[in-house]
Design brief:
mainly beta, 7-stranded mixed β-sheet, elongated
Length: 124
């Protein structure tokens, strides 16, 4: 019923900038929290940043001051602006959304959804 599609990943030089986008579509009623997680090779998935529907944000200490999460509720889209990335930020980045949606029986339902992941490589 709901799909999350990410875009914007790729290769970026240390100290550069990159912006990730994640658009949600489907039988959406409202989206609560949205966020970004990442998983580096050989490591567990970890929180990068989250944002509530009202715009309150939370981010990992490792990215504070460098990465900024934002969202456009009208477009059901969440963004991650990555400034001054470091090689240790290299990972697959996944977006996340806590969604109320219409089920096939048209009743409201709630579920967590994840994007397919987008690779970000920070290297010179």
């Amino acid at each position: 019923q709901v799909q999350l599609v990410e875009s914007g990943g790729g290769l970026v030089q240390p100290g550069g900038s990159l912006r990730l986008s994640c658009a949600a579509s489907g039988s959406i009623i409202v989206i609560n929290n949205m966020g970004w997680y990442r998983q580096a090779a050989g490591k567990e998935r970890e929180l990068v940043a989250t944002i509530t529907s009202g715009g309150t944000t939370n981010s990992a200490d490792s990215v504070k001051g460098r990465f900024t999460i934002s969202r456009d509720n009208g477009k059901n889209t969440v963004y991650l602006a990555m400034n001054s990335p470091k090689p240790e930020d290299t990972a697959v980045y996944y977006c996340y959304a806590d969604v109320y949606y219409r089920g096939r029986d048209y009743n409201p339902r709630r579920s967590d959804y994840w994007g397919q992941g987008t690779q970000v490589t920070v290297s010179s």
